[in-house]
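Take the subject:
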Amino acid sequence: MIEIIQREKDVAEVNTMSPLTWAYVGDGVFELFIRTHLVNTTRLKPHMLHIEAIKYVKAEAQGKILNKIQEQLTAEEKDIVRRGRNAENHHLPKNATVEEYSYSTAFEALIGYLYLTKQDKRLDEILNMCI
């Protein structure tokens, strides 16, 4: 995973953050994971890498990924997903339904939470379930 970035918050502090903050971080972590995966497994040029990455990182796809892995989540992870899905977000999605966007936010919140709480082994497991 990404060892060069210092994660200085402890679990208690991360738990007080908004799920939207978790999702903000999770969005970046997931995007980097997908981009790195594509670079490592394909020989595509940058434009096509972008086209392929969108297939994973758009709201609709993230909602489908969350649905696919839902049964493999722990009770704590399901609670994080619930908090992310129910977070009041005033952003109106441009290319997704409100439901797709809320599930995408929930997925990103889970990724961000695991990353911020340094649960790297579990984060790696979940990210690899997404491919």
Remarks:
- The chain has one domain: 13-129.
- The radius of gyration is 14 Å.
